[in-house]
What we know:
The chain is of the alpha+beta class and 361 residues long. The protein has a domain at 122-229 and 240-313: C8orf32 fold. The protein has helices at residues 126-129, 146-156, 162-176, 195-201, 206-219, 263-268, 280-284, 296-301, and strands at residues 12-15, 18-21, 28-41, 47-53, 61-70, 76-80, 85-92, 97-110, 112-113, 178-179, 203-204, 224-231, 246-253, 257-261, 305-306, 310-315, 321-322, 336-340, 343-344, 348-358. A six-stranded antiparallel sheet has the order 17-6-7-4-18-19, with no helix packed on it. It has a four-stranded antiparallel sheet with strand order 5-8-3-20, with no helix packed on it. The chain has a four-stranded antiparallel sheet with strand order 14-13-12-16, covered by helices on one side. The two termini are 37 Å apart.
Amino acid sequence: MRTVRWWLVACSVIVAGVVARAGDTPKEATFDARHELEVAIPEGAQVVRIWFTQPQSDVASEVRRMKVESTAGAPKSAKDDQGNAYLYWEITKPAAGTFKATTTFEIARKEVCGNVDPAATRAYTPADLKGMEKYLGPTQYVVIDDKIKALAMEVVGDEKNPTAASRLIYDWILGDIEYWVKDPSKLKASTTGSTEHCLTTKTGNCTDFHSLYMSLSRAAGIPTRITYGSFFKGPLDGQDADQSYHCWLEYFAPNVGWIPLDVAVADIFVDGVTLTEENKPKINLTVANGYAGPDPKMVDYYFGNIDERRVVWSHGRDLTLDPKQSGGPINAMAKAYVEIDGKPFDGYKRKLTFKEIKKAP
């Protein structure tokens, strides 16, 4: 088990829903982005339904000048039961071929950080947790069973302060789980983002890490929620290469609000990573702006802080769309969801590319 040290790093705090920085202004960056989707429509398809993620504006993100082009005309607006907005196309009796959609947009993004001083919060009261049920229960792949409850008790013990307890969970995961890119020949991620996979194999990708974290956090009575987005990865600036997706979490602390963390990326900066020809390219593209070696301050940074090189696509898991999909709840929406004749269809490709136009100070 690795030892993880808690360093103190001054950063931003969120006050009344506005991003602010303790002693300084948050870092900012602006990007021109291009988001492309291709769906291979098979012969004989009768009804094709396509939900395509779009960049979400929030207190840290301002999306500007978004334009949409597609081979099937203008999309309709759609949402899901957790408030995420999508572009939606429904195509009846299409010809076999390729559906294409492209969105271009500019996004100004601010660094978001939370006050992780345990003295800033307190134990929950029943009033604090009213309406938080969906952030405390299981989902299809975020398991809360007797094994998880016992482990949460072992990790957290009698700690009732949500920030102190959350840090205990964060450090336990960093000490017990390895990000798969460190040894891709042996370590494997799940295809679903799974608590069970992460706990059993002691490895996984960002969704595996954060599934296990949510299971332990929710089992300990700490409301926790997930965000799906993408990095604007520094080494891929201006290149014709997909940025893939990434996810991160927030936990709720009374008197403070929702505090972000990213235990998956933090794991890359823990001591003990040996770079090889096989893992170096993957590790370099798992973090925001390239990898320069272990950094305990970055391990600490990602407990409470989220860097500015990101875009948000959606929040939550087990989603129900509107218009409602024919299949069951959608595990997560990091890219797109497609149905053909009432059945989920994975014959699509997504690509996100970007150019940074204003660098963070």
